[in-house]
Amino acid sequence: MFLITIGKPDEPYVQEGITMFTARLQHYFPTSWKIIPSLKNASSLDNRSLKMEEGKRILKEMIPGDFIVLLDERGKQLSSVELSSLISKTSGASFKRMVFIIGGAFGVDEPVREKADFIWSLSKLVFPHMLARLILSEQLYRACTILKNEKYHHI
């Protein structure tokens, strides 16, 4: 799994959890994070220009054969079991990588949205990016334990 996000490195209190769940995910799938730094001139750009520049940087990370999941508040909400099913279907298909994208503060540019194979909403709530990273890593781990019928998730 390849997880991409725009923004600052995580605060230590959040990074500890992300590191823990990412390490646990390694037991199921090779997993890595790419934190694309915020643009240095972000405050001088309007929202549309900022999303375009961030989108270009995100798209550079894509390779042919990726299955792309975009996290977006307007996406489809999934239960943990449904997420595990999505991962199962994707990992059994001919995709090279499963890529999860957390865009910038104003979302993602349309070309990134168009590349997405699935658009997923973590919640109707809006989370700070650092917490979204933590929730994403935990939910991916939870989904993998569901796939292996392990005891982490209680149904």
Secondary structure blueprint with pairings:
Layout: E1 2-6, H1 12-25, E2 32-36, H2 47-59, E3 66-77, H3 80-91, E4 97-102, H4 110-115, E5 118-121, H5 129-147
Parallel strand pairs: 1-2, 1-4, 3-4, 3-5
Helix pairs in contact: 1-5, 3-5
Describe what this molecule looks like in 3D.
This protein has 155 residues and is of the alpha/beta class. The chain has one domain (2-147): SPOUT methyltransferase, trefoil knot domain (Alpha/beta knot). Helices cover 41% and strands 21% of the residues. It has five helices and five strands, in the order βαβαβαβαβα. It has a five-stranded parallel β-sheet with strand order 2-1-4-3-5. β1, α1 (12-25) and β2 (32-36) form a beta-alpha-beta unit. It is globular, with a radius of gyration of 15 Å. The mean pLDDT is 92.
Question: Which band does the percent of strand residues land in?
Answer: 15-25%
What name goes with the CATH superfamily?
SPOUT methyltransferase, trefoil knot domain
Provide the number of structural domains.
Answer: 1
* Number of beta-strand segments: 5
Number of helices: 5
**For this entry, what is the oligomeric state of its chains?**
single chain
Main sheet? 5 strands, parallel
CATH topology: Alpha/beta knot
